[in-house]
Design a protein that fits this description.
heterodimer, A: alpha/beta, Alkaline Phosphatase, subunit A, two-stranded antiparallel ribbon, B: mainly alpha, two-stranded antiparallel sheet, 8 strands
């Protein structure tokens, strides 16, 4: 998919962008059609400027040693080698050969210490940027993004979570931001719940009843109209637009070639779906990959799992870059924690949150950077230690938000991110 | 903050008439002197609001709107078409009050309260330890049994999941994960209307009234609680009898130790003291529910709900008001502080006192609230006309002065109150501080005394042991000696030898123990002495601290009358300031309307000026025309004069030529005559010529004269032309000047018209601002949305689903009854499912059964329309998921499928479109359709028929359209 004439250097990109800038503006591009454009380089300039987030959640706890922070030769290092990447000086585990070629779009945070070895709590603090407190709920990163980055015009849900078994329903992870920003959980090819017209209602009947409803509303609006009545009316309009765009959730509409390239498995299809959704301006897409909780046979499982991840992930990063989406899309690869440097009796690794890694990329991120360092055996952070709170601020800053800002919810002010933390500035472009 | 301490509480019953008098002062002094029996609460509510109101208010609602509103609020659903028809066609004057009483008596009322209090207290939190169904059942039964609200709150606040209250009441604590901080925050918010969370680590940065001391005072009541599971996996909210709260500000580093428990705006609690280790009847242990001798949580419950806690009463009254009116007197209800004051402090005081006087009877309170005009206000701000503002517009200056007066009065009151209240706060902090120190000292003393008791007990027990041991040793020694003797005698008997050695060993061991015990005595005696010595110093510490506390308490108590007055003044100041703010919005609208009038006036003036100009222009034009005609005439005369002169001039020239010719000839002839003097003929000719010449000369003179005259006439005509020309020019200039003036006027008119458009826009904006202000002050009802439960039940009622299930339950009952008469084997089973129900129990039985059948549907609505867990339940949010659920979800689709009891089925059987429209609108929107709506329905059906569409489908479309409309979704 890469243009043969484009060398990929930054100067080249800038020149092309300037050249195409004039062409692109007049087209009023519908992001949906981008997939069919022949010249990806032209497409780069047609994508909307809206910021988006693509988050990967490696369920169970990805081993940093078999991925982002390999320690070959150390007693804790395990059997896999480290390989060079497209960024000189940065090495990844040999289980990530395709991702290694995309390293120049990504950045590593290798000094993460979250001090939380429980799956539920670890996941909570990584996804919400705050430690779990009894009785108080904080919104998920996705809900925060949906609220802060989404627009009213967007008919699609602002926060979509793709995971095996997702039935298209909503979950309860938006806390005080309200259910409007909660995740719609997709998976197994299911569209969002209730997005199909019931068989008993004919198409023209559905149109007529909407019209009738609108007439009743017009009558009512003569003497009273408020922001709330408008919002309620608008929600039906959004529903209509979402139903019109249902094909968006159908990955089989993507070219055969891409389906092949991404991999004929759930994760591959889910990555391809994520690409479709991001192209359609959905502000936050999370893709989950299971299961990394390898207390037994860590190395065999990682060989299998990370290799599957590598192909689809690298394909998606490359496509986002080629299509110009990467400049507006923040990539995050997180987990609830890492895995112990110590290898246990079952060739497994256990829960480990003292020194592990996450990956960022794309929008607003210093690409090709590697921030933070662990010691030779990977047992301790020796430089640039950060925690989940700093990461959360960094994500928000990367997509252009003031991470010290507040949401105003009917007079109640809620800080977007933990006020006690600040962003990791070396990571921001 | 000011506080009504426990001692002061007894007086609060006398507080009510005082408040009432204050309100009456505006009205009549006579009323204040002898209030025989106060008018009903709803009248006092209206007096309160209406006295404070200036400017337009929306009229009270129609019967239909009242019906829908009061059904939703008291029964949690809309009425059926039948109920609506009955009420709307009832002509009795008291039908609204009668309906209210009917609804309050109906079993739906308890259900509605169950939903409302569940949402209010649990805020849609998921299950953690207690089954939500148990909790719901507990609430339902409580309301069914008309349990006073303070009693219900007491049970919830005291709950431990065991014996203190019904087990389900512990859900409030346990399903907040029993976290002391989460619980403290929510007790503050939900029961006292104050969100003290930010005051946990420092005084609230934004809200002056919220202090860290308030948070920790409340926290002290809570923090001894913890979740506990016994060996049967049953969870409890256990409480220990010991543990103290200490804190420090993260900002200032200041703090307090041994914080006595204290309710917001109340005095700290003086507590009994128990020596260390004696705090419990049943001490805490793994899996064991401890029983403290003194429970802070029970104290909290008691103090909050005893009927005299001002903050508790005000919060609860405000919650009830909010439930009915859609917005609180304090709004949001959990953020009560000086920056978010009650809109009408006297109303809040009135409601709070009335609540206490009603002994916390929810029905009494709600009945009065819904009978008020305030409750029955319409939502249709669009119906308020500019004319309704006229008196304000006319009297703007006076109202402006009133506004300033209110502000300065408020400012004065606020300042004087602020000074006293801050003194009160200092005094109160001193009470807390000294009490904390005193409690700590008393605790230390009790602990010291306990140590004495414990040591004495130990010493006694050691002595006891020693005595026993001495006896044992004596006996054993004797036995050992005897044994050794036996052993020596029967040396070959091994078993005897062993036994003897055993005795000796045992004896030695006992002796050793005896020594140990002996040695322990002096150590214990020493410890006892030490413990006894430790008591007096602790004892000495207490009295000074006690007097310090007493002094502080007396100091605070002395301030009480002033503080109480200051608190009243502060409330009054807040009320006045808000009234002034409201007046400001009213005046802004009045100014905008006046500006419209001004623009209108400008435009009329300009139009009048324009008319005048047009008149002068017309006149100028006429004159110009006259002058122009004159000019033309003069020009014609001038031309004629020129012509005349010219011909005369020609004639003169001809004459001059003739003279010259004749004269020449004459002169020649005269020359000849001189040469030939004798030629008579010639002389005669000469004479003749001379005469001729003379004649011609004279003729020439005449011609010359004529020509000269004519020349003069010509020149005179020319002068006339010039004069006329000048007049024309002058007049034309005048005309142009008028036209220029007209152009200026036209421009001004355009400007004035633009200003009018602007003024109209301003007025509209100001109107919106006024309307939201007036809504906030209950002069217009807010358009609030239906709760998820109200929406679900209303949709099920409208579509006939409730009726369908009622019929089914009744059928079961009847079947059971008939089978009870002729018992069969199956009948026994039926009897189990539907036992015979007495006539009296029947409504409750039906309600329960229908609820059981349909509550799953309600849960679905809660999932789509409810707020997130832990968020205030009345936050409105519309989402695409809701619209998709209503559009494509199977639930609503099923409800629209026709059958005999369902609305779609009933409508299908109606041939007359007017009849159909009536039933449709009554069933879904609880009102008769307007004429144009009947036409809409008729045309819709006709249109569907024309398109060859299914009539049934058309009916379903209309029902769906109405269900999805704003009118249905919102409560007006």
């Amino acid at each position: 998919m890469k243009c043969s004439y484009a060398c990929g250097s930054s100067e080249h990109l800038i020149a092309r962008r300037a050249f195409l800038g004039g062409v692109a503006t007049g087209l009023g591009a519908s992001a949906l059609n981008l997939g069919t454009l022949v010249q990806p380089a032209a497409a780069r300039n047609l994508v909307s400027q809206q910021k988006r987030v693509l988050c990967f959640f490696m369920s169970g706890g990805l081993s940093q040693l078999e991925s982002w922070d390999p320690k070959p030769g150390a007693d804790t290092g395990g059997p896999f080698r480290a390989i060079p990447t497209s960024v000189p000086g940065i090495h990844l585990s040999e289980l990530l050969p395709h991702t290694a070629q995309q390293m120049h779009h990504l950045a590593l945070v290798r000094g993460l210490n979250t001090s939380e070895d429980d799956h539920g709590k670890g996941r909570y603090l990584m996804e919400k940027g705050r430690r779990k407190m009894p009785g108080i709920q904080y919104p998920h990163f996705g809900a925060v993004s949906a609220k802060a980055l989404g627009t009213e015009e967007l008919a699609l849900p602002g926060y979509i979570h793709i995971t095996p078994g997702g039935g298209g329903g909503t979950s309860n992870d938006a806390a005080y931001l309200g259910p409007k920003y909660a995740s719609v959980v997709l998976g197994n090819g299911n569209p969002p719940q209730n997005s199909v017209r019931p068989k008993a209602v004919a198409e023209d009947s559905a149109t007529r009843r909407q019209k009738f409803r609108q007439r009743v509303n017009d009558h009512f609006a003569r003497n009273r109209r408020t922001a709330e009545t408008d919002a309620y009316t608008e929600s039906y309009e959004q529903a209509r637009r979402l139903m019109e765009r249902r094909e968006l959730f159908d990955v089989s509409q993507e070219p055969e070639k891409d389906q092949e390239r991404y991999g004929r498995h759930d994760f591959g299809r889910h990555c391809l779906l994520a690409r479709r959704l991001l192209e359609a301006d959905v502000p936050f897409v999370q893709v989950s990959h299971s299961n990394y909780d390898t207390h037994n046979e860590n190395f065999n499982f990682h060989l299998e799992q990370v290799s599957e991840f590598d192909i689809s992930f690298a394909a998606l990063v490359a496509d986002l870059a080629d299509r110009g989406l990467l400049d507006h899309t923040l990539i995050v690869v997180m987990s609830e924690f890492g895995r112990t440097p110590r290898i246990n009796h079952y060739y497994g690794r256990d829960h480990w949150s003292k020194a592990w890694s996450v990956v960022l990329g794309g929008c607003g991120v210093q690409r090709g950077a590697a921030v933070g360092k662990t010691n030779e055996r990977g047992t301790e952070v020796v430089d640039g230690e950060v925690d989940h709170g700093a990461l959360f601020h960094t994500y928000l800053s990367a997509v252009g938000l003031d991470s010290t800002g507040e949401f105003d919810l009917g007079g109640r002010k809620m800080p977007m991110a933990d006020p006690a933390a600040t962003p990791i500035t070396e990571l921001l472009a | 903050m000011p506080a009504l301490g426990k001692m002061a509480h007894g007086k609060s019953k006398r507080y009510l008439p005082w408040i009432f008098c204050c309100i009456c002062l505006h009205g009549s002094l006579a009323g204040a002197q002898s209030p025989p029996s106060p008018p009903p609460l709803h009248e006092r509510i209206d007096r309160c609001l209406e006295q404070a109101h200036v400017g337009p208010a929306v009229e009270t609602v129609t019967d239909a709107q009242f019906l829908r509103r009061v059904y939703l609020d008291l029964a949690g659903t809309i009425p059926t078409a039948g109920e609506a028809r009955q009420f709307l066609t009832d002509s009795s004057p008291n039908k609204r009050a009668a309906l209210v009483d009917r609804l309050l008596a109906s079993p739906r009322f308890a259900r509605r309260m169950q939903y409302a209090f569940d949402a209010m207290w649990m805020e849609r939190r998921p299950k953690f330890y207690i089954e939500p169904t148990e909790w719901s059942e507990y609430l339902y039964t409580s309301f069914q049994e008309e349990k006073p609200l303070n009693e219900l709150a007491r049970e919830v606040l005291a709950a431990d999941g065991a014996k203190r209250s019904p087990r389900a009441a512990a859900r409030f604590y346990l399903d907040r994960e029993a976290d002391p901080h989460a619980v403290t925050r929510d007790v503050g918010r939900i029961f006292f209307g104050q969100d003290l969370q930010c005051a946990q680590c420092h005084d609230h940065p934004l809200i002056e009234d919220y202090h860290q001391a308030d948070y920790h005072g409340l926290f002290a009541f809570i923090h001894r609680g913890y979740a506990l599971k016994d060996k049967n996996e049953v969870s409890y909210y256990a409480e220990k009898g010991e543990g103290q709260v200490n804190y420090e500000s993260v900002f200032t580093g200041e703090g307090a130790e041994h914080v006595p428990p204290k309710l917001p705006a109340a005095m700290p609690v003086v507590e009994p003291v128990f020596g260390k280790g004696t705090e419990h009847e049943v001490p805490p242990a793994d899996g064991v529910l401890p029983v403290p001798k003194y429970s802070r949580r029970e104290k909290l419950a008691e103090l909050a709900t005893c009927g005299t806690n001002r903050e508790f009463n005000r919060n609860l009254a405000n919650r009830l008001w909010t439930l009915m009116l859609g917005q609180g007197v304090v709004d949001p209800p959990d953020l009560h502080h000086a920056e978010n004051p009650p809109t009408h402090p006297e109303l809040l005081a009135l409601l709070a006192d009335a609540l206490a006087d009603s002994e916390f009877d929810v029905k009494t309170m709600l009945r009065e609230i819904v009978l008020s005009r305030a409750y029955q206000r319409g939502t249709e701000s669009g119906r308020v006309t500019p004319e309704q503002f006229q008196t304000i517009v006319d009297d703007r200056e006076a109202w402006r002065m009133e506004m300033s007066r209110l502000r300065s009065e408020a400012e004065q009151l606020r300042e004087s109150a602020g000074e006293i209240l801050s003194r009160g706060e200092t005094a109160e902090a001193e009470v807390s501080h000294t009490l904390g120190a005193l409690a700590a000292a008393r605790q230390a003393l009790a602990d010291a005394q306990q140590t004495v008791v414990n040591t004495e007990r130990e010493l006694a027990s050691t002595r006891q042991q020693l005595a026993t041991q001495e006896t044992l040793v004596t006996v054993l020694q004797r036995a050992a000696e005897a044994g050794q003797a036996v052993k020596a005698q029967f040396q070959e008997d091994e078993s005897l030898g062993k036994a003897a050695d055993a005795f000796s060993a045992r004896s030695a061991e006992a002796a050793k123990k005896l020594e140990e015990l002996r040695a322990k005595i002096p150590a214990t005696e020493e410890a006892l002495k030490k413990a006894r010595d430790a008591v007096p110093p602790e004892e000495e510490k207490v009295p000074p601290l006690e007097s310090a506390w007493q002094a502080a308490a007396a100091n605070r108590e002395a301030l009480e009358p002033e503080i109480r007055q200051a608190r009243g003044n502060q409330d009054r100041a807040l009320g006045l300031a808000q009234q002034a703010d409201y007046l400001e919005s009213l005046l802004a609208e009045a100014d905008a309307l006046a500006k419209i009038d001004g623009c209108d006036n400008d435009i009329s003036t300009l139009h009048a000026q324009g008319q005048k100009l047009a008149d002068s222009l017309a006149e100028a034009n006429t004159r110009l025309d006259g002058l122009r005609a004159n000019l033309t005439e003069h020009k014609a005369s001038h031309a004629a004069a020129i012509q005349k002169w010219e011909s005369a001039h020609q004639e003169t020239l001809a004459a001059r030529e003739a003279v010259a010719t004749v004269e020449g000839t004459w002169q020649e002839v005269q020359a000849l005559v001189e040469r030939f003097p004798d030629d008579a003929k010639m002389a005669a000719a000469a004479e003749l010529l001379g005469i001729k010449t003379e004649q011609l000369r004279s003729e020439l003179a005449t011609h010359n004269e004529i020509a000269t005259n004519l020349e003069r006439e010509r020149d005179a005509a020319a002068a006339c032309v010039a004069e006329a020309q000048e007049s024309v020019s002058e007049q034309a200039a005048r005309q142009q000047a008028i036209q220029a003036e007209q152009a200026v006027l036209a421009r001004r008119l355009k400007e004035a018209e633009a200003a009018l458009v602007q003024a109209r826009q301003d007025a509209e904006r100001m109107f919106d601002a006024w309307a939201s202000s007036a809504t906030r002050r209950f002069a217009i009802a807010p358009l609030s949305s239906l709760s998820p439960e109200q929406l679900a039940w209303s949709m099920m009622t409208a579509t006939g689903i409730v009726e369908e299930h009622r019929a089914a339950v009744l059928a079961e009952l009847e079947k059971a009854a008939s089978e009870a008469k002729e018992p069969t084997e199956e009948g026994e089973a039926q009897k189990q499912a539907a036992p015979s129900v007495s006539e009296e129990e029947r409504p409750h039985y039906l309600e329960r059964k229908i609820h059981e059948r349909l509550k799953g549907n309600v849960d679905q609505f809660v999932r789509y329309f409810g707020t997130s867990p832990g968020s205030p339940p009345d936050d409105f949010q519309a989402s695409v998921h809701q619209a998709l659920f209503l559009t494509n979800g199977s639930l609503v689709s099923q409800w629209l499928a026709p059958n005999a009891t369902r609305l779609t089925g009933r409508l299908a059987n109606m041939q007359d479109s007017r009849e159909l429209a009536e039933e449709l609108y009554l069933a879904v929107l609880t009102r008769f359709p307007e004429a144009e709506e009947k036409e809409l329905v008729r045309d819709y059906l006709a249109g569907a028929e024309q398109d060859g569409a299914d009539r049934q489908a058309a009916i379903q479309e209309m029902v769906w359209g109405l269900l999805g409309s704003n009118e249905f979704r919102f409560r007006r």
